[in-house]
Amino acid sequence: MDSMHDKWAIVTGASSGIGKDFAAALAEKGANLILVARRVEPMEQLGVELRAKHNIQVRVEGVDLSVSGAAAKLKEKLDADGIFVTALINNAGFGLINEFVNQSTDRITSMLQLNVIGLTEMTHVFARPMKERGGGYILLVASVAAYQPCPIFAAYAATKAYVLSLGEALHTELAPHQVVVTVLAPGVTQSEFFTAAGQKPSPAMLRMMMKSRPVVDIGLQALFKGRSSVVAGKFNRLLTLGSGLIPRQMAARIGMKMAKL
Question: Is the CA virtual torsion 42, 211, 215, 55 positive or negative?
């Protein structure tokens, strides 16, 4: 189903970067949107643009998904207004770039709460009614970092490994109920990721960087084709393939050197 005309889709992390492009791409397919993030003002501006351009409904929800129970409260609000969600784009998340022991435990905990707990709660809360209705689409945004241990990104990569494992398992578990779960693994992408992480991308990362809209298009195409997972970009696919062919500690040492280039 490549058309989402007049159906509702949630995009988390919709205030910037990849989230904004997910919203724009779904609006082009005629989807009504529920934009979810902590920052409301940029989503309101995006909503004005998308309503005018595509004649769709856009609802903005300022929600901190790292807070336990936030997903359930969001669903209660949507249920009260008779909104049934056909597609969930679970994109919200952030990363930390530094040696593990030099990162604050508060920031690590916040990242785990959003990247793992928040994503899991959103998936659980909205997958259940999709299963009951007999159909739906869920896209989980992971990372190429999910495919190997990543020094300097250690805890972040671990959260994305969780997302990859969860999504691929749920793809099989929910398939009999016509609920598609797809994991998108971007590489280095133009977004606010590095700003949030408090670091600048290295020259090597800049050379590998993709624009966000092609990444989004790859993810949505895989979702609507019913694939379990997809890695965005030829170079990134080669990278993940290569990391699976060598010992994990060798991959970690190579990753350590690349992170410092």
Answer: positive
